[in-house]
Amino acid sequence: MDEKLLALLGSDRLASRQIDELVGIARGLIADDNLNHAEIEFLQAWLAANLSISNHPVINKLYQRVNAILADGIIEHDEALELLCTLRQFAGSKFELGEVLTSTDLPLCDPPPPLSFAGTRYCFTGTFAFGQRKHCEQAVMERGAQAGALTQKTNFLVIGAYATESWKHSSFGNKIIQACEWRERGLPISVVTEQHWVAHL
Question: Which InterPro entries does this entry report, sorted A to Z (predicted)?
Fold first, then answer.
């Protein structure tokens, strides 16, 4: 067989073993429903070691996210919770970093509305390709908007690109359901995807 084909087949088998091992690690880390500094550092070390073998996109993206969390040496509660949710989704389903939900999977505004920033209020939920939630909030605040928890004064609820089809049972499902209930009652809350939001930055 061609050497390139052999190399490709070998890399595919390696990637499959890596993902299987990562699923096992994720299940172990989330077993107590908590992530501490040592556990996150262990995950970082495993991801770094495996990136040196194979630059798998799932491992690469997760490695970037863990590096961002550990960059300042302080793990904030929201950062640990977001990573815990990501690992829980990864370990408990066919979730992959990069599995993007379509408009048929979520109660999105159809057609998606134009977005504005000055004088508006944003809420972000889910896991984002753009970065951590605080980075998304910073991006809109730099453009004159407010950002924070979901309230009846929220204008735009932005849903992160990385999610699973079982979003209703996820940590961010309650926000989406609440926003939709308020929208049905006539409150001007728009539910949009991360991709739509990024296009307006």
Answer: BRCT_dom_sf
* pLDDT given at position 168: 58
Residue 199's pLDDT is 93
**Is 109 inside a domain boundary?**
no
Q: Which helix (H) or strand (E) holds 48?
A: helix 37-51
Q: Tokens standing for 188? A: 């001007």
Question: How many Cα atoms occupy the beta-carbon half-sphere of 131 within 13 Å?
Answer: 10
Whose tokens are 């909030």? That residue is: 137
The total number of structural domains in the chain stands at 2
Q: Is 129 helix (H, G, I), strand (E, B) or coil?
A: coil
If asked whether residues 9 and 85 sit together in one domain, one would say yes
Length of the chain, please?
Answer: 201
Note down the domain range covering 163. 121-199
Residue 143: per-residue pLDDT: 96
